[in-house]
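Chapter review: from sequence to fold.
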Amino acid sequence: MATTPSSITGRSLVAGTGEGLLLYAEVGLSFWGGVDSSSGEVIDRHHPLSGERLAGRVLAIPSGRGSCTGSSVLMELISNGHAPAALVLAEPDEILTLGVLVAQIIFQRSLPVLYIGREAFAALRGTAFVRVEGASLRTFDQPPSDGWQATDELPEPPTDDHSITLGDLDRALLDGQHGKAAQVAMQVVLRMAQLQGATALVDVTQAHIDGCIYTGPASLRFAQQLVHWGAAVRVPTTLNAISVDQRRWRQLGIDPELGEPASALGDAYMAMGATQSFTCAPYLLDSAPKAGEQIVWAESNAVVYANSVLGARTLKYPDYLDIFIALTGRAPLIGCHLDAQRKARLRVELPALGALDDAFYPLLGHHIGALAGSRIPLVVGLERARPSLDDLKAFGAAFATTSAAPMFHIAGITPEALDPTQVVEPGEALPLERIGLDELLASWRELNSAGNRPVDLVALGNPHFSLSEFARLAQLCQGRQKHPEVALAITCGRTVLEQARQAGYLAPLEAFGATLITDTCWCMLGAPVIAPGVRSLMTNSGKYAHYGPGLAGRPVHFASLAECVEAACSGTASGRLPTWLAPAPPEENPLDV
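The token string follows.
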């Protein structure tokens, strides 16, 4: 018999009712790369809930993290019946909330999302059973026997919030004067603005769409519904990497059950007026935004790079909110669109460092992302290292994998932190984290999950390769050939591929035996590119070293680009620690000689 329940009152982000056994974790979860969209299994092998299934459970996590595609995965789970019964958060999360809202619109299915704050969230630890009703949560030691059941009725839509200032265009969009798709888009933009506490909207100059990744039938149905409603983007819009190489998926041996709908999804977004860019690194295109430009970008690494390195202004927009804003040209004026919300909330100090290689930056980004959580960090100690744009790209991608924050600052390096005092509120003492080499070594071992397994596949280009990365790889491969039993594949955007061809970088790579894949990225690649006989992979990407074990189902070796090339030639990972991470040999004691 259940004990008397305790009650918690929070803020309902999506109304509704649901109950179930509690699935609790103190670590945020990226639904993309962390949850299987067809089964609801947690596949992030670094997460404490790894192997658990979400269906019918009340999932309690501090927030989401990582990829913007989490909204698409949650929508897919709601559509196919493998979603949690309810979602309880320690802090609001736009990515997960948006996935539920879109499921309401397209599939007329939903689940309650409740934000309760950190203190109440911590009190849930050890709870067995939870019931969510609107803004109320009750806990039980065991399932109650009162016969209560969740209702199948959808919650009533929120009433119009007139606290948000609307212009003539906003009202015209909302009234349906620009068509059904634009009307629905404006309704969702305003709903998210209300949830975020925005009081105004802002014009955006461009968009980058992440929702073109195929997560299952629901993602295609969503895009095709918008096309049916007459959707047309109002601002220049690029597309993220899709789930297949659209020009070559048949040649690569991709199963038509994936290739056809994934390609059709890309076509649907192009029918709305988006550019056929198909890259997860839109900052490498000539259309990259300038400092101070208000934009709407999704894809977590792109968001972090745009804010941190380019100085443009965007939130970490969820899949589907990105296209809704592209259809209206209007975004909530909140978060990193505002000066005050771009300030650092955490100071991270690095230890003394020796000569660094390119493996340092993705490792550091992965480590700091986990420390930062949703806080924007100020990293101190790289002033003399002078990281390149490729280093910042690798840092940001790994940071975005483990953090929910939309940007970072590096003292003396990133544009807003050239003077570090400018990214700290006057008089504010930031919380401080000092990182030791022993902590970085622990993160290195975490990313190196493959042990002493042989290397069967080297995976490069997560995020997509830049022209300078092609130049470096061509230099490393010049005059050499890979081991016949090892595959090496590089993912990149079409634009950069043609630039590399014209620069003469592809000839030595093709002679080496590399495979070049455009349009898609390693987070979407499976068989046959990752052949059934592959026992382990190797990468220089901190992002893919994190996601790979769950997405590819294989352990991963992580190291520098040069070490990846050596492994492609030998079939083995050296296992050597980089010099900046290896402990210094003890000084010889003359008395011992």
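Two observations follow directly from the output. The chain has four domains: 6-140, 168-338, 343-445, 448-570. The longest strand covers residues 17-24.
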